[in-house]
Structures are given as C-alpha cells and as structure tokens.
Design brief:
The complex is a heterodimer.
Chain A lengths: L5 E2 L2 E5 L2 E5 L8 H8 L18 E8 L2 E8 L12 E3 L13 H8 L9 H14 L5 H7 L11 H9 L15 H11 L4 E4 L6 E3 L3 H10 L4 E3 L5 H6 L8 E3 L9 E4 L2 E5 L4 H11 L1 H8 L4 H6 L2 H6 L8 H7 L2 E6 L2 E6 H4 E3 L2 E2 L6 E8 L5 E8 L10 E9 L5 E9 L6 E2 L1 H7 L6 H7 L2 H5 L10 H20 L12
Parallel strand pairs in A: 1-7, 2-6, 8-10, 9-10
Antiparallel strand pairs in A: 2-3, 4-5, 4-6, 7-8, 11-12, 12-17, 13-14, 13-17, 15-16, 18-19, 19-20, 20-21
Helix pairs in contact in A: 2-5, 9-10, 15-16
Chain B lengths: L26 H6 L15 E7 L5 E7 L1 H4 L4 E5 L25 E2 L5 E7 L2 H8 L3 E6 L22 E4 L2 H7 L2 E9 L11 E6 L5 E5 L4 H12 L6 E5 L14 H14 L3 E4 L2 H7 L6 E9 L5 E13 L5 H10 L9 E10 L13 H19 L3 H8 L20 H11 L2 H14 L3 E14 L8 E8 L5 E5 L8 H13 L6 E3 L2 E2 L14 H28 L6 E4 L2 E4 L2 E4 H10 L5 E7 L4 E3 L4 E3 L3 E14 L5 E11 L6 H19 L31 E7 L24 H12 L16 H15 L2
Parallel strand pairs in B: 1-12, 10-11, 14-15, 18-19, 28-29
Antiparallel strand pairs in B: 1-5, 2-4, 2-6, 3-5, 7-15, 8-13, 9-10, 9-12, 11-20, 13-14, 16-27, 17-18, 17-24, 21-22, 22-23, 25-26, 27-28
The chains are: A alpha+beta, B alpha+beta.
Chain lengths: ~500, ~775
C-alpha cells in the first residue's frame, strides 16, 4: 500500500477565521478549547455529557459536495475531529453592525430567555433548524430541540419564537448565507487527502486519509480508541477522565458514510450518523423512523453513528435489537480482510464482542421486511424523548396463509447484558395461530429468555411486564384495531 | 440596550412603566452569549481552580485519609481538608452547627465533600481528586424514611404541630373514614448553570467572592465565619445566576467558603465550578415526603376532619428543613377548609445529601397531600373529584380559618375555578373522555382540575425586609441597586420599572446593577416569591425620598406650592412650566440636594408563634387553577399531556410578559417533579440519578400539546403591595398537580372509577403501569 502523506496539523474554520492547530491533545474538547483557549464564552457548559445542549454549536462540512451545517454538543466533540469543518458559535450570529440575527430577534421578541444560560444553545439549535426548514411545524421544532434543556421557560415562549423566526428575516437572506460559497471553497482546499497525525504516545491523534488508511492504522495500532461521533467516548473523557490515546477519528471518512439500497437490502456504512440514516430508514421502515426520532437529541443524532451504536456493545443501544430482528449482518474488517457475521453473534457478553484486535465494524446490511411481513420496534423510556431505554422490543413476523406464525424474530434491549433474541418466545409462537390466546400463552417464555436488572431507569419487574406488553401491543397492531394502541405526538 | 438616545421630553408615557410588558433586561445579552455568568468573567492573572473529593460511602467513620498522591499530582498547588478551615468548619444556615464545610472524622452521605484540591487548571484539580485513598469504617446508613418512626427516629430539627378543633374525635365520630399513605418524590433543581464561586483576595485579608447565589448576605456571613473574620472583610457579588429555583439559597455557601479559604491562603484568585455530577451529588434537593393521612367525612363528601403526618427525608443536617417542613404543614389545606385538623411534621435524619429549598419550599408537598385526600373522598363517595373540591373550598366570610389560625381574607378561588371550569369545558370533556375510554381498550384518557392557594411571605418573619440604594446622577440617569438577586425571573426589570415609574423617566435611564453586599447590607434570600414585593417596595421608598427632595427643592426654587409640582414623562411640571428631568436634577445638584437614598421596606401585619402554631404568617395568598387532560398507554404506562388550561392571578401585574413566563415555566417544572423526575438511590445509598442522562426534566416535546395559559385580569391585590401586584415565583409550580390527578383519573378508568388509584409521585411510566396493574388485580379483571 502506498504510504499516505501526513501532516501534523488540524485545520478548520472557526466563525470567520482559519485555524491550524499542531498542538492539540487527542482528548481536547471543542467546548474547553472555545472557552479556555479562544475565550469565546458564549457557549456554555451545562452537563459535559451531551444531554443539555447549553454548549450547542454548528459544525459545517462538505457532504457530497454540499455544505451542510449540523448542531453538535461542543462538550463531547473533540477538536481532533474537526478537520476540514466550519465551526459556528453564538458569537458569529450578531451582525458586525450590532444587528441581531433573526433567530436572536425572535427569541428576544417572544421572551424566549429567562436566566439565559441555555439560550445560546437554543439559538444555535434553532438556527440549524431554520437553515433547513424556514417555516417548521411544531413537531419539527420539538425534534430539533430534544437535545436542549431549559429549566425556566417551560419552552412555550421558545416555541413561539421558533415559529416566528421567519417573520424577522428570510432564510434566503440569512446574513451568514453570504459567506457560504467562500466557506465551501475554503473547506474544499482543506481536504487535501493527507492523513493527520499529531503527537505520540499518550497524546497521539490520527485522522485517516481514507478507509484503507484507517484499516492500516488500526491494524498497526489495535489498542487505539476509534472515535466516530464521540457521543460515547466523549463521556469517557469528561466524566471518567480515562486516557484514550492514541485516538483515530473516523467521522470524516467519506467511504464509511454510504447508505444504499439494493434488492431489498439496505447497507449502512459504519460512519453514517443517525441523521444521515433517517430519510431512507424512516421511509422504508416507518417504525425505525419513530425510533430514531426518540434516540438522543438532535445534536447526538448529528454526531452518533449506527456503527458506533453497534461497536460499543452496549446492552441498551437502541439500534441493535431492531437490526437483529430484521436479520442484519455485520461486515468486520481488519487490514484488507473482511468477514461477515449475523449481528446477533457480534454481542458475546457484557462488554465483550466478537471483534479481533485491529478489526472494526465497516458496515451493516439490513434486509427490509418483505411485503407479507410485519415489523415493529417499540422503545420504552422514563421520558419519551432523549432518554436511554428501559426496555426496547423489535418484532418481525410472517404469517402463513392459514394464519399461523410462519416465522417470527424478536429481539430486546435493556433486558439482558447484551441486545438479545427472545428465542423461547419465538419458539412458543412459531407454527401457532397468530391469536391473542397464542400470545398470552407465549408470555411465560419471556421468563426463560430474560432476567432483567433493576436500576435507576426501571425495576426488573417493570422491564419484564413492559416487555411482555410490547408483544401484546405488536399483536394488537398487527391484527387491526381502530382505537389507538400507543400514545405520542403527531409528527 | 442602554443606547444613549436623548429622552423624549414630550412623551405621553414613559417607556417601561409598571403594568407594561417589558422584556427581560438581559434578553439581548442572553441571545448573543454576551451575558456574563461567573465562569465567563475574565479571571485575574494566576487564577487557580478547585475541585472536591467526595465521599464514596453513605455513612462511615473515616479511618484514614491519604492525600499524598493528590498533592503531588500535576498542577496541584494545595489540598484542603477540614483542618485547613481557619474559622468555623460549619455552614449551617440556621446556626445548628450540624453541617461541616469539609467532613471531619466521619461522612454522613455518599457525595459529601471531604477535601478540596486547588490546581493550576480545573482539569488537573478534577484528575487529582481521584488519586485520594480514604479508608472508611462503614456504619449502618438510613436512606429512606418510609420505614422510619416519626415519633422515635432521629430528627434534624424540632417538628411542628398545627391543630384546630378535636381532629381525632371528629374523625372517630365521622360517618365515613379513610386512611392512607402516600409517597411524594423529591426533585433536583437542575439549574443550567451549576454552582460556582470565584474568590479574589484583597488587602487587609479581605476577600471578594463572586458567587452564584440567591443569598449574598448569607454567603458573606458564612465565608466570614469560615475565615474567622468580621463580615466587613467579605464582599459577595452576583450579577445573574443561570437559574436558582431555591437550589442556590444556601447551597452555594460551601463552595464560596472553600474558594475564599484557598484564595486567602494562596494569595491568588480561586475558582470552584462543580462538574454537573458533583453538583447533583453534593448539593441538596427538594425534600421527598411520606404523608400519612386519616380523614373523616360524610356521604356528601364534606370533609370534617383531617389528621396528617408529613415525614420528610431531610438528609444529614438541618439546613432549611425546619422551615421547609413547616411550610408543608402550612399548605396541608391547599384551598380547603378542614373543620378540624391535626398535622404534624417529621423532619427526619437520613444518610443522604441535606435537602434544601426548592420553589414552593415544602408547600407543593403539603398540597399534594391535600389533593390526595380529595381523591380518596371522591372515590369513596362516587363523586367527581372537582365536585368534592368545590364542596370543601374555603368560604369567604365563614369556614375561612386556616389550620394555623390565620383568617383567609382574600379568597377568590371560587371564581378562578368557575371561570376555568367553563373555559376549559370541563363537563363536556368529562363526557367525551368517558365515551373515548369506553371504546379504547389500550389508551385511556384522564382529566383533572386542581386549585392552588399559596401563602406569600417568609415564615421566618424577620426575613420579610429589604433594602435598596438609588443614585440619581447629574445627567438624570439613575443607578439602581437592591438586595434581590436575578436568577432569570425578571426581578431586575420589574424593580427598574418601579423606579422608572416613580421618577417618570424611561426605563433605559435606569441602570440595573449587580447585587452586592457592599451596597445593600443584611439582605434576605431572594426566595419565597418575595423578590418583587420586598425589593420593589424598598426601591420605591428610595426613589420617593429623592423625588420628595426634588419636589421640595423645586417648590422652593420656583416658589410654587408642592402640590403644583408633578413628575411627567421625562420632565417635571412646576407650576405653569415644564422642565426636563435632567435639568431639574442638575439644578438640585448645584443647590447641594442629596441625590442618593437608601430605601427600606418591611412587610406589615405578619407574625407567627411557632410554639403555639398560631399567627398570621402570610401577608396574603396567591390563587390559580389548572385543568389537564392526559392519554395513558395501559400497556407500558407511558403518557402524554394532551391539553392544559391555566387561569392564574397575579394581582395588577407589574409585567404580564414576565409573569406569563413564570407561570408557564413553573407549571412545566412542577410537571417534571410529578412525572419523570425521579431521584433513585441504590442499595448502598448512592444516588444514581446525578446527571441529565439519568435524571429527566421535561423537554419541549413534553409540553401539553395544547397549552392555554391566562392571567386573571380582574383581581387586584387585597393588600397594598407594590402597585397592587402579587407574587408569582412559586404559586404556578403547583398548578402541575392537575397532571398528576389527570393521570390518576386515567388509571382509575381501568376499574371503572370505583377504586382510588393512590398514584404516588413522581408518576413515572413505571408507577403508572404498576398502579394500573394493582387496580386490575383489586377489581379482579
């Protein structure tokens, strides 16, 4: 393999200025860098774990040649992951003439701030929304604000402001739009095809130039921390103060960002974020769209990847159970070698996955439910949105012509040390008529499949009962009823 | 925006008068990120940073502390332990000497600060904390109060008893009786800006502390005690907090004291800003309660007598638990007349963080107990709970004496509830919901309308005083300072409106300045909804003194009677002529008239005898009501709030826009308390919900889908309050009870409303589902 050229510098644009950093620690967060190094103190720290949104900034990057801006949590975003991006902070919004940006004007006009500490984050999230949707519905606004906590206003005034932003200025005349073309050009030049390699030992960070380059680096450095969205690893640093060097940042590798569909199978590259996966997944499997809308906040969905959700092996990751129920397969790669395994086989035990040193998740292939199949995934959490799952169940059912269960795959999260199939329940259903009596009789099998834990999210008793009831819900939904079977907010 | 535009001397009205919708004075700075919170201030050169080492067990004697690795960690300058406190190692706000700054010899809860590391950077300080080796001899830990005996187990402060009539006898003789027990959860404040203090040493051993606190005077006193210096050596300043909600009434003392100790010892500025997890572990929260109730009533639903015990998890020290549990009793009636009543508090010691003030200050927990009783009686008599509520409301001329023997003189709850019942179409929707539930097997709806009556004043009578300092400069611009603190509630702008009104000058001529103990001394906490009432009056007093001097001066200089002098917008009419306000000020200055005044106010009429449980602790009451409808998924317990209607009174509001924000925000915060905000301790007494990933406050998408909030525009304050406005900080919080009761109503539908669901708070999806299961079992279906 040809040796990749390297540079020892991260380059990006902060607001209007070019930044080149050769002295950057692999675990330096964007928030600390902004506040401590740049003394830009409009961006606030509320939780340092990506849950409150007070630190929200926008990161612009070229995606398929187009410049897109996304809200992110600066507190868990590493500076090393910013190569060839445009970071926009609250300080950039006000005009040089002192005029407020339309988003800011609306927030002032509608009394959208009280203590004001969360406000810069809200302004940035609303700006990100307004750029792509100048006249958003309430559901769109709520979705865009799932990752922003406000403790004072009760959100009502912020909602009024969000609905009215376009009354204060047109998105087409966004004061910052003028610089876009020029920013896009500058970002294009920043993508010079070189590997970034800074520091050594306990302070090394690498940004691979390509997928092959990543494979090579990781094979050589199998103990490296691979970081895609940093929505998990960010907390290793801010909360557990773990040493993570060397770090390989793969969030910018285009070849890991593909999502495609062929012959009833969707293939998702490991670097595809929840946001990027949303359109296709939600269209083909609507219930997956509902799930993704409840996974993290907008900022987390903009950073976090489905690949990472699988690779970190968490028992409460939201995407593995539905992917297992769908029969997804995982492609793992080490160097130039690839192998493909059923996703459920990847999860060996708590904290243990079937992944060899230097091997990484490259993609996941997801067979779509056939026309004669029914599929659903249901998440249960204490708070509806931006909460970690108490229990989550996914069901894929095919009925035979005589109304018996030809095949069913059921997988749960939050019920065991790994995402796990409910094999006993499946066995209790297969071949039987798909009736309420069958379902009721099968419920006992949950006890042999799962022994859930009690923790701060839910008791074992509740997890077990809710899990059983999700099967009941699936039954009711698949057998037709005019009465509602779930509560929720219209999208 | 303080633009230097010339005032309009012919204006018909000033900009920023009272009773107008002024935006928050810092709104422009909030949205641009230019508002400066303590962590945003430029640090003095050489500023050091502190982090705290916390106990990892709930209760133990400390056998040994080895901090050698901490002290030699990179960047570490000093490590403080209890032995390094030069003055008193105590920050008990009520003087009970039960709350050390740093633990000494023993730890009493998981998360208790034991030592404090000072390092060059915050990260170095945090990392160094983890290197400590502390050996514990663990002791039995009391975590929950459910199984404690209020009569025998340890209390942190003496209990209160309220009684009127023969409660026990009346219950025994009543036609019907029900007893029960309810759990009411606590709540973390989750202010977005965590605790922070920046201490800057000065000469003569003085220190200035910038502290995110609702109570600068108390921080001043605590720091002075900790340092062993007089109060005059300590100045405490706060421009704004990123939220307080009661969590910064006493809880900032500890960090201010440590920063000041370190700053003085090292001769360098020291900043302590807690990580969110440490903040949530080491600082107090809303008290959770177990309420035992015993009620006598008749077949009509008339409640005849109530007997209560309110047992609270106070944590390891008293902090404000005495007044908090007192206030729970003060609101054990909510808006209802209990003909005979006996209520006792039990402020219990536990090995958990010491609980503290939180919006409502025990009142919400008290009221939830009252509303449970209403539910019990309604289910027992088969009546709609709203009917039972109305039946038992306080009267206006009779049935109007509270359990603490204060007569309710300003009762407007009947009209508030009647108007809301009509505008929310309670009866029509009650029927619709019944029809819906009939055909909907899985999703069930529920509806409830609940009232709020909340007592306004500090129950510690001496706290009901305030001071202000007003300067008029020779150009006619005004400098305003008062003892109240700004935590987002809009206090500063409201008080500025009062001052602008007095002088009849545009509000942008009034400069709002940071609260500091050096300008207005001996202030009370900005708490108990009292901020505008007290500080508005004090500022008005200061402004009136200056205005009187200006009036007397003008009368003298222009030889006109005083009654021919009037302050018009930005100008003064003196006899037949009008001169600009700044001109009159300039002339007064030249004539050596004092243009600065200190104002003062103390609330009249109030008194309280705690030993007897009798008095007039509240100046007045604030009223409101809300009506909520929910949908509940009976398979998972998940729910959504479909609609909420609120009617809330604020007297003649100083600023309806600000008050609306308090009502909406208070309701949602209260809803969080009663629904998804759950504090959870594991078997070892470790709080496991100490970050937003595990502790779930409401999101925008948790708001009621339809949310109609109205301010009642007809009432005016019964008492001569500031421009006849009424307090609005806390009362709306309790409007959220309608959500809890709507959930209860939906749960009850699975057993045809024959059994009281006894739904405890917080009503998480889990609690809702378990209540449904329980009802199904009891109903045998």
């Amino acid at each position: 393999m040809a040796r990749t050229e390297t540079r020892a510098e991260i380059r990006f644009i902060l607001n209007g200025e070019d930044v080149a950093l050769s002295d950057v620690a692999p675990d330096e967060t964007l928030l600390d860098w902004l506040r401590l190094e740049q003394r830009l103190r409009g961006t606030k720290e509320g939780c340092a774990e990506g849950d409150c949104g007070a630190c929200t900034v926008l990161v612009g990057r070229l995606s398929g040649g187009k410049l897109v801006y996304e809200s992110v949590n600066a507190c868990i975003r590493f500076v090393g992951s910013l190569d060839a991006t445009h970071v926009v902070t609250i300080e950039h919004l006000k005009g040089k003439d002192g005029r407020l940006h339309p988003v800011q004007q609306a927030m002032v006009g509608f009394h959208g701030s009280q203590c004001g500490f969360c406000t810069p984050g809200f302004v940035m999230s609303l700006y990100g929304l307004w750029m792509r949707s100048p006249n958003p519905s309430d559901a769109e606004i709520e979705k865009a604000l799932q990752g922003n906590l406000c403790r004072c206003t009760g959100y009502e005034a912020i909602m009024r402001a969000a609905r009215a932003i376009s009354d204060y200025g047109q998105a087409a005349k966004d004061p910052l739009l003028a610089e876009r073309e020029q920013i896009a050009k500058r970002l294009t030049t920043l993508r010079d095809g070189r590997r970034v390699d800074i520091g050594e030992g306990k302070a090394r960070l690498v940004v691979p130039a390509s997928l092959d380059d990543f494979a090579e680096i990781y094979q050589a450095e199998p103990k490296a921390t691979v970081v895609a969205g940093s929505t998990d690893v960010g907390l290793w640093v801010t909360k557990f103060m773990r040493e993570i060097s060397p770090v390989v940042f793969i969030g910018g590798i285009d070849e890991l960002k593909f999502i495609s569909e062929a012959d009833g199978v969707i293939t998702i590259g490991a670097g595809v974020t929840y946001t990027e996966a949303f359109a296709l997944l939600a269209d083909r499997i609507p219930t997956m769209g509902t799930l993704l809308n409840r996974l993290g906040g907008e900022q987390v969905r903009n950073m976090g990847t489905i690949g990472g959700n699988i690779a970190n092996g968490s028992p409460i990751g939201d995407t593995p159970p539905p992917l297992i129920a769908l029969g997804a397969r995982l492609t793992l790669r080490r160097g130039a070698e690839r192998r493909t395994i059923p996703l459920e086989d990847f999860f060996v035990a708590y904290g243990k996955q079937d992944r060899r040193p230097g091997e990484f998740v490259e993609s996941v292939t997801v067979p779509l439910p056939a026309k004669d199949e029914k599929f659903a995934v249901y998440k249960v959490s204490k708070r509806r949105d931006e909460d970690i799952t108490s229990t989550l169940g996914a069901f894929r059912l095919r009925l035979a012509e005589d109304g018996t269960v030809a095949s069913i795959r059921i997988a749960f999260g939050g019920m065991a040390a790994t995402p796990k199939r409910a094999l006993a329940v499946e066995a209790a259903l297969e071949g039987k008529p798909w009736t309420e009596a069958t379902v009721e009789a099968a419920l006992a099998a949950f006890e042999s499949d799962f022994t859930p834990l009690t923790d701060m999210r839910a008791s074992a008793e509740y997890r077990m009962l809710a899990a059983k009831n999700l099967l009941r819900r699936f039954f009711v939904e698949t057998t037709g009823t005019r009465a509602p079977v779930q509560v929720g907010r219209a999208a | 925006m303080n633009k230097h535009t010339s005032p309009d001397f012919k204006a018909a009205k000033i900009a920023g008068a009272v009773h107008t919708d002024q935006r928050h004075d810092s709104a422009h700075k909030h949205v641009t990120g230019e508002a400066i919170y303590i962590d945003d201030m430029p640090e003095p050169a050489g500023t050091l940073h502190g982090a705290l080492g916390l106990s990892t067990v709930a209760h133990a004697t400390i056998r040994g502390i080895d901090l050698s690795a901490v002290g030699t960690a990179p960047g570490v300058i000093a490590v403080l332990t209890a032995a390094d406190v030069p003055g008193e190692n105590d920050i008990s706000p009520t003087g009970r000497h039960d709350e050390p700054i740093l633990a000494e010899g023993a730890v009493q809860f998981f998360g208790q600060p034991i030592f404090c590391v000072i390092a060059e950077t915050r990260e170095q300080a945090r990392r160094a904390c983890r290197l400590a080796r502390i050996e514990y001899d663990e002791l039995p830990a009391v975590i929950d109060v459910w199984d404690l005996d209020p009569a025998k187990d340890r209390l942190v402060t003496p209990p209160l008893t309220l009684k009127r009539g023969d409660a026990a006898g009346t219950i025994a003789a009543a036609p019907r009786r029900v007893k029960g027990r309810m759990r009411v959860g606590g709540q973390d404040h989750f202010y977005l800006e965590g605790h922070i203090s920046l201490a800057v040493p000065g000469e003569d051993g003085d220190v200035t502390v910038h502290c995110s606190t609702q109570h600068p005077s108390e921080v001043q006193h605590m720091v002075a005690h900790a340092l062993g210096v007089p109060s005059h050596a300590v100045t405490v300043e706060i421009r704004r907090m990123g939220g307080g909600f009661g969590g910064k009434e006493t809880q900032g003392n500890q960090f201010a004291a440590l920063a000041a100790i370190a700053a003085k010892r090292l001769g360098r500025a020291v900043k302590i800003r807690l990580d969110r997890d440490d903040d949530m572990l080491a600082t107090g929260k809303r008290h959770d309660f177990v309420v035992d109730y015993d009620v006598g009533f008749d077949d009509e639903g008339n409640i005849l007598s109530v007997d209560y015990i309110y047992a609270a998890r106070c944590g390891f020290s008293s902090d404000l638990s005495g007044p908090v549990t007192d206030r729970a009793l003060f609101h054990c009636d909510n808006a209802y007349f209990w003909p005979a009543v006996h209520a006792k508090s039990a402020p219990l010691y536990t090995n958990t963080v010491s609980n503290t003030a939180f919006r409502g200050f025990g009142g919400p927990q008290g009221m939830v107990g009252a509303e449970r009783i209403i539910d019990e009686v309604a289910f027992a008599t088969g009546k709609d709970p709203l009917e039972v509520r109305k039946l038992n409301f306080y009267g206006t001329r009779e049935r109007n004496v509270t359990p603490y023997h204060q007569t309710v003189e300003d009762n407007i709850i009947h009209r508030i509830v009647a108007e809301l019942e009509e505008s929310a179409d309670y009866d029509g929707r009650r029927r619709e919901i019944a029809a819906f539930n009939n055909h909907s097997r899985i999703v069930k709806r529920g509806l409830a309308l609940t009232p709020v009556k909340f007592g306004i004043s500090f129950t510690a009578t001496h706290y009901n005083q305030a001071g202000a300092l007003v300067h008029v400069y020779t150009d006619g611009s005004v400098h305003l300072n008062h003892g109240g603190t700004e935590m987002g509630q809009g206090l500063y702008v409201k008080v500025a409106q009062v001052v602008a009104e007095e002088f009849q000058i545009d509000i942008d001529r009034v400069k709002i300045t940071a609260t500091t103990t050096a300008k207005v001394p001996n202030t009370s906490a900005t708490a108990a909804s009292s901020g505008s009432d007290l500080n508005g009056m004090a500022a008005q007093d200061a402004a009136r003194q200056i205005r009187k001097r200006l009036t007397d001066f003008a009368a003298d200089k222009y030889s006109v009677p005083v009654d021919q002098i009037a302050f018009l917008p930005n100008r003064v009419r003196i006899g037949n002529q009008e001169i600009p306000f700044p001109d009159l000020v300039k002339q007064a200055y030249m004539a050596r008239v004092q243009l600065s005044a200190a104002g003062f106010y103390k609330t009249p009429k109030i008194h309280w005898n705690r030993d007897k449980g009798e008095g007039h602790p509240f100046y007045y009451f604030a009223y409101g009501a809300s009506c909520s409808e929910v949908s509940v998924d009976t398979l998972t317990g998940e729910y959504v709030v479909e609609r909420t209607d609120i009617l809330h009174e604020t007297g003649r509001s100083l600023n309806r826009a600000i008050d609306l924000g308090q009502i909406e925000g208070g309701f949602i915060q209260g809803m969080g308390w009663l629904t998804t905000e759950e504090l959870w301790w594991d078997g070892k007494g470790r709080l496991r919900t100490h970050a937003p990933s595990t502790y779930k406050i409401p999101l925008a998408s948790d708001r009621p889908k339809i949310f109609n909030v109205r301010l009642a525009d007809w009432p005016e304050a019964h008492e001569p309050t500031i421009h006849r406005s009424k307090a609005v900080g806390e009362p709306p919080f309790m409007l959220a009870m309608s959500v809890l009761h709507a959930l209860s109503d939906a749960v009850a539908s699975v057993a045809d409303h024959r059994i009281c669901p006894r739904l405890d708070a917080p009503a998480t999806p889990e609690r809702v589902l378990m209540a449904i299961e329980q009802l199904r079992r009891e109903a045998g279906r």
